[in-house]
Amino acid sequence: MANRVNLSESEMPRQWYNVLPDLPVPLAPPLDPQTHKPVEPQVLSAIFPMALIEQEMSAQRFIDIPDEVLQILGLWRPTPLVRARRLEAAIGSKAAIWYKDESRSPAGSHKPNTAVPQAYYNKKAGIRRLATETGAGQWGTALSFACKMFDMACTVYMVRVSYEHKPYRGILIRAYGAEVFPSPSDRTRFGRSMLASDPTSSGSLGVAISEAVEDAATHNDTNYALGSVLNHVLLHQTITGLETRKQLAMLGIQPDVLIGCVGGGSNFAGLVLPFVPDKLEGKKIRFLGIEPHACPTLTRGEFRYDYGDVARLTPLIKMHTLGHGFMPAPIHAGGLRYHGDAPILCHLVHHGLAEAKAYYQTEVFEAARLFLQTEGFLPAPETAHAIKGAIDAAKAAEPGQNVVFLYSGHGLLDLSSYDAFLRGELKDFAYPEESIKEALKACPDIKGD
Amino acid sequence: MANRVNLSESEMPRQWYNVLPDLPVPLAPPLDPQTHKPVEPQVLSAIFPMALIEQEMSAQRFIDIPDEVLQILGLWRPTPLVRARRLEAAIGSKAAIWYKDESRSPAGSHKPNTAVPQAYYNKKAGIRRLATETGAGQWGTALSFACKMFDMACTVYMVRVSYEHKPYRGILIRAYGAEVFPSPSDRTRFGRSMLASDPTSSGSLGVAISEAVEDAATHNDTNYALGSVLNHVLLHQTITGLETRKQLAMLGIQPDVLIGCVGGGSNFAGLVLPFVPDKLEGKKIRFLGIEPHACPTLTRGEFRYDYGDVARLTPLIKMHTLGHGFMPAPIHAGGLRYHGDAPILCHLVHHGLAEAKAYYQTEVFEAARLFLQTEGFLPAPETAHAIKGAIDAAKAAEPGQNVVFLYSGHGLLDLSSYDAFLRGELKDFAYPEESIKEALKACPDIKGD
Fold first, then answer.
1. I need a labelling partner for B331 at 20 to 30 A (CA). Which of A279, A333, B174, B291 fits?
2. What is the pLDDT of residue A75?
3. From B84, which residue of chain A is nearest by alpha-carbon distance?
4. To probe the interface with A, which of B3, B5, B6, B251 has the most A CB atoms within 10 Å?
5. Option in A8, A106, A412 nearest B376 (CB)
6. Mean pLDDT over residues B66-89, rounded?
7. What is the mean pLDDT of residues B431-437?
C-alpha cells in the first residue's frame, strides 16, 4: 500500500493546462474602469509583459512551459502526493485522504509555481524590477525567490499588520535580495494619502495592491506581478493538478473530492482545473473550496463586476465579491483575506461546477493541530482550512472513497498564530447580513452577461 | 543528467549499520565517574531502556529497524539526494556538488531519525515520559514530535539564550504537546543551584543536559534521551548514509569527499559511517567534518576522557574535548556549541580516518546566502558550515569529482540569526591557545588506552 507517490524529473509536466477553451459558457471579459468596454491588451501592457497578457486570454488548451522555467521549478518539483493514514485513523475515516504537498518549495508554498514563470517572462521582455504586494508573506517570499533566480530586482509591499506580526517573512524576503516595505508606505502617492488620513492604518491586501500597481505604472523598467486571481496565475498553478492527475492514475485511483483553501483561488484552481474535462465528461468529482467565515467571498459575496483593489486602479472583473472596500477581520490566515476571487473559479462556482464552504478559524486551527500531531507537519493557517475541509469530507464520505487536498504551504513562519491559538486567544468572526449588503454597495453598477 | 535521486518507499533501508565491529582499533569504553572502571550496562538503565543500551555496545554489523519505527520514518523518508548545479555554476566548480536533504522531516532536520526509535524503545519498555535538553531547538522539536507519535509525554530543557532568541521553537514544541522550560530552570536541583549563583545565566548545552538527566534519574516513569554523541544515536543516523550510498550507486557515482557539520557529530557520522567499509577496502573517500572556530573541538581539543555534562553526571567518555566547563562563544549555530564530540567520530579522527576543519560564522553565513540565492533553500546556521566546507572542497577538487554533503536542516526558525547577518552584526570568535589550555584543566586525569 503506497503512502507516497513521487514522480521522476522526466515525468514533470512540460505544458500548463488552460481551461478557457473548455468552459461550456465563456468567461466574462475584464472591463476598462472608464469605458466599461472590454480591456484592450495594450492597456495591460503598462504593467504586464505581452507573453502573460496573451496567456491571460489564450484559446490554446495546452501551453508550453519554457525550459528556463522548468529548470527552476526542478529545484523542488515534481512534488509528492502523500497518503495521510495517521490522520485517517485519528478521525476514524473509512475514506482515503491524500494530500499534494506544495510546502516543499523554496518559499514554502505553491506560490513559486507562478512566481518563476512571471519573473521569466518579464525578464525576457527587458524588465529589470518587479513590484508586488503580499499579505501573510507567502507571495512576497515566492516572488523574491523567483526574481533572484533570474537576477531581477524585487519590491514587496507587505500589509502592515503582517509585516509587524511576522518579522521572519521580511527577513527571508531581504535574504533573497529583495526590498520590503510595510503598506501603506510613503513610497507611493496612494500609500501617502492613506497614511495622511490614518497614520496608524494596519493596511490590507487591496491597499498593498494599489501601491504595487502604482509603483509599476510609474516606473518604465518595472512591472507588476500578482500572486493569484488572474487567469495566467491559475494557468501556471495547473502544474499541481496535472501532477496530481498523473499520480492518482499511477495508483489507479479516481478522486471523489478535490479540496483547497481559497483566498484569491489560485491553489484550489491549480488543483482542480485539470480535472474539469473529466467532470464535463460525466465523471463524479466534487470540487470543494474552503474559505474563512471572516472573508466569505464565495459563500456570501455577489457574482458581479468589481475592482480588484481599493484604489480602483485595476480593470473591473466579474467575480464573487464582498465589495472592493471590504476590510476582512484580522484572522491569522492572512492569505485568505481578499474581497474577491479568481474569475475562473467564480465562474465554475456560479455555473455549479465547484462548491464552497466556510469555517471559523478556531476549528481550523484545531484541524491544523490534529494534522501536526498525526502526520507530523505544521501547516500554514491558510492550508489548515483545506485540512478542515478534508477531514469533514472524509468523515462524510463512503468507505473506499478518495479525498484529495492541496497542502498549499507550511506554517513555520506562522508560529506566532499558533501561539495565539495555544493560549486560547483566537477570536472567531462572522458578519451580519446587513454589513455584507453595506459593503457591496461600493460595487459599480454594471450588468454582467 | 539527473538533478535529484528519489528512492521509493520499498528502497528505504530496513537495517541500521553498526560500525563498532568494523573498527580496526576497538573503541575505548565509557568509564564510571566514581570507579573509573568501564560502566556496567545496568548503571545506564536508570535513564535508558535496555534495547538502546544493547545497541550502544552491540557487535552486530546490521541491526533491524522495527516496523513501527519504519512507519513513522516513512512520513518523510527516504529523502532525496540533490545536485546543486546552480551553486556549482556560481562558484565555477568543475566538481559536482550533491546534498542529502534531511531538512524535509517534520522537525526540519536529521534529528527525528534517532528521536523516533528512541521514543519507540522507551515506550516499549513502559516509559511514560522522556526528558531532554536542546540548544538551538532542533533536537527538542524532533523529540517532541517523536513522543507525540507514540503518545508519550516529553519535557525539554532549552538553553535559555536560545529559548529567548528563538521563541518560535518553543511554540512548535508546545504545539506537538510537549512542555519546554528555559535552562537553567527551577525544575531541578542542579538548575536551582545554577540560578542561585547566577540568576541571569544564559545557560549552555552542558547545563541543560545536567537538568534533563537529573529529571530522568529522579522520576521512575521518565527516561533521558540524547540527540547526539552516543553510539546508538549515530547508529540510527546511518539511515542517511545508507540511503546516500544507494542513491550514488544508482547514479554510478563514487563520492570523493563526504562532508557534514559537527556539533555532537551525529549527522556527519550518519552520513560517513556506512562508507567506512569502502574506505577500509582502500577506496579513496575523504570524510570531512566542519566545526566553528568558536567551538573547535576536533581541531583544537584533546583526545582524552571527560564528562559529557557540566554537572559531571554522565559517564566519562573518551573524545576530543575542550573541557566540560568550556563555555563556547554565543554564535548563531547553537547546535554546534558542545565541548565534546561523539566518541566514534573522535576515534575516526584520532586514527586518521576522518578530518576536521573550522570556519568563522561570517564566512559561513556568506555561504548560506549563496546557497539560498542559487539553490533557493534557506539552510540552518549549523548546516551552513557543511555548505561552506562543500564549496571550498569543490573549488579544490579535480574536474569530475563528487562532493557530497549532508544538508542537516532548514533555517526557517533561525531567521533572527540571518537578520543579524544581513545587518552586519555578526561577530567572529576564536580563542588564544592559553584559554583552551585553561579550559582543558577541568578534565579528569585519566590515561586512555
1. B174
2. 97
3. A75
4. B6
5. A106
6. 98
7. 93
Residues of B within 8 A of A375 (CB-CB) are 75, 106
Position A44 in a domain: no
Task: Return residues 115-134 of B near A (CB < 8 Å).
Answer: none
Domain that residue B351 falls in: 65-71+78-108+237-440
Q: Is A411 domain-assigned?
A: yes
pLDDT of amino acid B319: 97
When pLDDT is cut at 50, 70 and 90, the band that residue A448 belongs to is low
Cα separation of B343 and B336, whole Å? 16
pLDDT band at B448 (very low <50, low <70, confident <90, very high): low
- Provide the shortest C-alpha distance from residue B112 to chain A (in Å): 11
Distance, in Å, from the CA atom of B130 to the CA atom of B156, rounded to the nearest integer, reads: 8
Q: What single-letter DSSP state applies at residue A278?
A: H
Q: Are B120 and B69 in contact (CB under 8 A)?
A: yes
How many Cβ atoms from other residues are within 10 Å of residue A432's Cβ? 8
**Of B228, B210, B227, nearest in space to B310 by CA:** B210
Reference A414, options B335, B413, B136, B105; nearest CA is B413
In the three-class reduction of DSSP (H, G, I as helix; E, B as strand; rest coil), residue B256 is classed as coil
* Contacts with B9 from chain A: Cβ below 8 Å: 2-4
Cell of B99: 546534498
pLDDT tens-digit map of A179-233 = 999 999 999 999 999 999 999 998 888 889 999 999 999 999 999 999 999 999 9
Is residue A228 assigned to a domain?
no
pTM over 0.95: yes
Q: CA A172: distance to chain centroid?
A: 20
Interchain contact B418–A (C-beta under 8 A): yes
Q: How many domains does chain B have?
A: 1
Give the pLDDT score at B27. 96
Report, as an integer, the average pLDDT of B214-242: 96
Residue A113 forms part of a structural domain: no
Give the distance from residue B23's alpha carbon to the nearest chain A alpha carbon, in angstroms: 36
For A379-408, how does the pLDDT look when each residue is reduced to its tens digit (9 = 90+)?
Answer: 999 999 999 999 999 999 999 999 999 999
State the CATH number of the domain containing residue B422.
3.40.50.1100
Cβ atoms of residues A2 and A83 within 8 Å: yes
Antiparallel, parallel or unpaired: β B402-407 and B257-261: parallel
Q: pLDDT at position B449, please?
A: 47
Is A149 in Cβ contact with B376 (below 8 Å)?
Answer: yes
Comparing CA positions, the residue from B420, B425, B422, B412 lying closest to residue B137 is B412
What pLDDT, on the 0 to 100 scale, is given for residue B9?
92
B335: left (phi over 0), alpha (psi -120 to 50) or beta: alpha
